[in-house]
Amino acid sequence: MKKVTLLLSLLMSLLFLAGCGGTAGSKEAGTVPAAAQAQKQKITDLLGREVEIAVPVQKVAAIGPGALRLVIYDDGTSMVSGIEDIERKSSPGRSYMMAYPDLKKLPTIGQGGPDTAPNEESLINAKPEVIFVCTLVDKEKADQLQAKTGIPVVVLSYGSVTNGASVFDDNLYRSLNLIGTIIGKEKRAEDVVAYLKQNEKDLAARTQGVPAGDKAKVYVGAVSFKGAHGIEYSQAKYPPLAFIGAKNVVDETGQNGSVTIDKEKLISWDPDILFLDEGGYSVVADDYKKNPAFYQSLSAVKKGQVYSQIPYNNYTTNIDTAFADAYYAGKIVFPQQFQDIDPIKKSDEIYQFLLGKPLYAEMERELGGFKKLELGR
Q1: Residue 23 lies in a domain
Q2: What CA–CA distance (Å, rounded) separates 257 from 163?
Q3: Residue 27 to residue 85: CA distance in whole angstroms
C-alpha cells in the first residue's frame, strides 16, 4: 500500500512539473506567433474589389506612386519586404525616403514608376502577404496581378487626380485606414487621419473671416511635376493655397491641376505675391537673365514679394511637405492670421508626426527651404 501511495505521489509530482514546464516554455517562447493570430477577413479596396486577407499581415509590398509613403505614414516601415528601383534613385524632397534611407537595402520588387507594369516575379520573390498599389492598375489589372502572384492585391487612392495634380479627399483617408486594418495599425491610422484633418481644418479656419476683397492676388510658378519647369507652369487648385483660402489667380481659368499659361497672362494678372517652386527655381533664374524686363514688370518682383515653396510633387504628393508649404504660404499671404506660426517648427512637427523624424533642415540643405527669393542675384 505504501508503495502504491508513493508511486501515485511521484506520478502527481511529474504531472505537476510537466504542467509547469509547459507554462515556462510558453513564456520563454513569447506570445502566440502573429501568423497564428491572423484571421481571414474580407477587405474592400478603393476600386470596390473584395479581397480576402489573413490580417494582420507581417510583410507588405507597395508599388506605384505614393503607395509606400502611405504605408510608412501608418508605421509599417518594418513590414516592407522590398522596394521599387525608382525608390533607390536620388530624389531630393521625397520625404519618406529621406526619413528611412535603409529601405534602399531591401530587395527589388520591380522598376516602378507611373508608366510601368508591375513585375510579378520580383513581387513573388519578396514574399509579401499583401501588395498595396496606387495608380498603376485598374480593376482588371489588379485582378490579373493577384491571380499571377497568388498574393492579395489592395488598390489605394490619394483622391481625385486631374492633370497630374492630386486633390486630397476622403479616398486618401479611407486608404490610410485600410492599410491600418491590414497591417494591424488601426490606431496609428486613425491618428494620422485625425492629424491631417486637424491641420486642414486649422488652415481653413484661420482665414475664414477674411473678405475676398481683402485677399492678395497670388501666383505660384515653376511647379514641379515630372521634372523642373519655368514660371509659366502653375497649378489651379494648388493645395497649399487652397488650404488657406488664398486667391490663386490661376483658379480664374476654371481648370483643375497643372496649367501652362502664357507669360503675357501673368502680366495681366500681376499678382501681389509670387511663389516659386524651388524645384524649378533655377529654370526661372536662367530665364530672368535672358528676359529681365518681363520679371521687372511684375509688381511682386518690384516690391520684393517673391517667396519659395518646397517641391512636394515627387512620385505623387508628399502630403507632409504640402501641408508645410501651406503653413509657410499662410504666414506670407495672411501674416496676421498666422502670426503664431513658426513655419520651420511647424514643418518639423508635421514631419515628426507623419514620418517619425524632423526633416526641415535636410529639406533646406537639399532644396533651399522657406525664404524670400531675389531674382537676378
Answers
A1: no
A2: 5
A3: 42
199 in a structural domain: no
How far is Cα 318 from Cα 194, in angstroms, rounded to an integer? 17
Residue 15 within any structural domain of the chain: no
CATH number at residue 52: 3.40.50.1980
**Are 363 and 215 contained in the same domain?**
yes
Q: Are residues 179 and 224 in the same domain?
A: no
CB under 8 Å to 97, separation ≥6 — which residues? Answer: 87, 91, 103, 104
Domain housing 300: 209-367
Domain for residue 304, yes or no? Answer: yes
| pLDDT in 10s for each residue of the chain, 377 residues | 444 444 444 444 433 334 443 333 333 333 434 444 789 999 999 999 999 999 999 999 999 999 999 999 999 999 999 999 999 998 889 999 999 999 999 999 999 998 899 999 999 999 999 999 998 899 999 999 999 999 999 999 987 655 455 557 899 999 999 999 999 999 999 999 999 999 999 999 999 999 999 999 999 999 987 778 899 999 999 999 999 999 999 999 998 888 999 999 999 999 999 999 999 999 999 999 999 999 999 999 999 999 999 999 899 899 999 999 999 999 999 999 999 999 999 999 999 999 999 999 999 999 999 999 998 77
